[in-house]
């Protein structure tokens, strides 16, 4: 039961008590109803951490408090926020737990089947394999779509360097698929202002990285007639509507709230403190009058890694207060570093991931040297006991990039049984990554400065909503 | 001595001590030098409230702590910040004390004489009468001007309603004079975003007020070839350079700092917390590339009421850290409410001031009914003891608006001696205000929508810098 459903149950029970009293019912009946009401209020407080207050529905930011180690002390809390992701578990973050903590919903078989039904397309491997594992309001988006009410997509990237690695492509690969199967417009925000505020970089560098990253994004194959890519540093100064939404959001979020959501402190600069409103603004369709002609009622769907969810929890809290629909979300798991799912990929460590600029030889060397193996120490042991695919980074990467479900399952079985050796598994990954990266580099080469400029120019898009 | 001068003296004395030690001077000489150094450090701590730290010049925000009643308990602290001005003194705020508290400099006879010399014009009555009473770096501006290095003017208005009163004109009357005598460009910021954040108003209303207020401002007679008026809600979305400066400033100011300067709390919205950067940005010439062609080194002079100084103390602290010159300032006293200098003018109380839309009859009635009088209760007593011009609002208003110095002085003497009765004084004020307001209304009528649009369109201005 969600906090909102429980809230409604408490409200209904309160009305029931009033009705019984008004009707001068039996004392025993009234007492029983009051007792249930009190129990529900205790449940509500436990679930939301806040007292039930009539007329004040629960905020999405009051989620189940879930700090400290679990009762059995087996695992510590994973850290997941826009600036830091860490876990002590070799399999990576406990995503089921994260769904409970964040108050989102699981992408279950029913939802995946429904996406298949509604889109008429085989679900993307990221859906089939639980890589986009969590969502908010996805059923609502599909309900509306079935009634011929369309939606638009919004995703983004923080351009902290020129170099992007394969993990950065996940939201873009998936967003392109959504764009294709639903035939809808897409806006892509490059938060160069954010990177300036958080990093020791100049504004000029951040903006340059934004344009460079746009090239890699375009190389994913987005439809130029349906896609608008923008740098905050440019777009804020391109038309007044975007800033107007930023100010509206900034008026409805307090320092206390961003402190609670993002962990800001009094020593943080005022730019960081107000930035969340800038990441929130593209969730509202009238931030793009050139695309939506001033309409503010077009539903937004945001595919992103789950570390970005705090921004959109905040956005969803603010939306009804400024008269806009809440954006829906599809959350992905994190892409693991070569060194293992509990270590963080680092832009400064070239060996922590495969970069989009890597040569076939670099790819081969990095996988062979650095990809954390779930295999046993010796060939003999491996043959006897088999490898652990759950912690093997090569296998994880194949889960992201190998399209063939049967082949992937066979690899898993052979590796687990010991029939497939670590070296052989790595070879399979190398053979998957090399043509993928080479293809990306080929497409990126085709992206001219003029194409980038076209994608980044505010303009009408071609779609029916 | 300013905190900066004292800082430099401490630094010099420190070097002196080191030099003596290096030279193996007499112990008595070294001891004496050390003793002086320690004394200077104590002085520095007393003046700035902070310990001397080599390499850390004093911040403009560390001014003499001056809280609580004075030793003799005669007067409480005046409250002066951008949102609240109050005093218990019928003569109004103690401005000399404010200069000490804010760490600014007095506009003394020497400065007024110098402005006359440099501009070749008789100083404006606001300078002759101490209405612009405080400044920062005005001598530096004049030094540069004498060396043919020009500057630009920046002033503004928070458009909280359609109605402006005569007090709102003070910075504009004075800025127009400065523009005329120095022949320099002027930018006028209408902070409609600020009003939206602080008041219970819609964005649309705030923006409409901005355009209405622009008409009253234009009616002051600004040169369209040298003046750019902008609404934040429009200008932020007009070109990227303004937002880039806003972000630069926002990166260099922490929540702690705005808490200290403006008294923000954790319950304030993030829009308020980051707004000071938006009021700061026009202080830097590259916020207006259409005017200054991207140059960031053109000195800015800001004439404003002193309650706006906190914004610019912050701006001056940030400026050198982002490579821009500090803006200079000229601060005015406050324009008193009709009910007296210790009450606040209220836009919601039509009787608290003379509005620019008032008819001659309304002006007459308001002055006669509401203008606080320094006269005695009866004609007999008044003739015998005389009136008190220092607390008489009609006399204060004449100080602002009556150009003739001799006539003003004669009025003061006659009123003080009892020769001039309150009714007669009020009549003189009415006769001054009526044609002034009528003239303003006449000029405002000439301001077409097209003129407003021209003034508010980002464009090159006509000047030599």
Indicate the CATH topology of the largest domain in chain A: Rossmann fold
By secondary-structure content and strand pairing, the structural class of chain A works out as alpha/beta
Q: How is the quaternary structure best described?
A: homodimer
Q: Which CATH class of the largest domain in chain A?
A: Alpha Beta
Shape of chain A: globular
What is the count of β-strands of chain A?
9
> Biggest interface, which chains?
A-B, 38 and 38 residues
- Give the end-to-end Cα distance of chain A, rounded to a whole number of Å: 33 Å
Strand content of chain A: 5-15%
Helicity range of the residues of chain A?
40-55%
The major beta sheet of chain A can be summarized as: 7 strands, mixed
Strand arrangement within the widest β-sheet of chain A reads 3-4-9-8-5-6-7
- Rg of chain A over CA atoms, rounded to whole Å, is 24 Å
CATH architecture of the largest domain in chain A: 3-Layer(aba) Sandwich
So, the CATH homologous superfamily of the largest domain in chain A? HUPs
Domain count of chain A? 3
Low-confidence stretches of chain A: 63-75
Count of alpha and pi helical runs of chain A: 22
Q: What does the average pLDDT of chain A come to?
A: 91
